[in-house]
Design brief:
mainly beta, Thrombin, subunit H, 2 domains, three-stranded antiparallel β-sheet, 8 strands, 22% strand, globular, Trypsin_dom, TRYPSIN_HIS, disulfide bond, Putative trypsin AiJ5, serine-type endopeptidase activity
Length: 149
Amino acid sequence: IVTAAHCTVGDATNRWRIRVGSTWANSGGVVHNVNANIIHPSFNRNTLDNDIAILRSPTTFSFNNNVRAASIAGSNYNLGDNQAVWAAGWGDTFQGSNQGSEQLRHVELRSINQNTCRNNYAVRGVAITDNMLCVGWSGGGRDACQGDS
């Protein structure tokens, strides 16, 4: 399972479970234990550069209509500007609610030019690296939220 390193770094592997085959956060599908949490070796907690990790399970997944392997882009893949991308998760449905969704939610967003993103975040003192993907919605009002990582 590919996930965000900032969500799992420092946690014991037995803290995590993987639920596959369900759109519900706490029911349905099949639950798998985690036996390895592999954090990107260059992950930086302060800048969130290389914010990626892999959770491994000692058991195999049974693939079906509800459980499929993700496609991962190659190292030379370049996502163009203003391309449709999707974010999904069980995170908060509005900022500051601290109330995750029980039902899996998703939102369509658009890729943002990397230099535009860098410039917009530089004024806030945030560095955007080549290892990061910038997405958003031009009119606002759509986004991932806390707990969706």
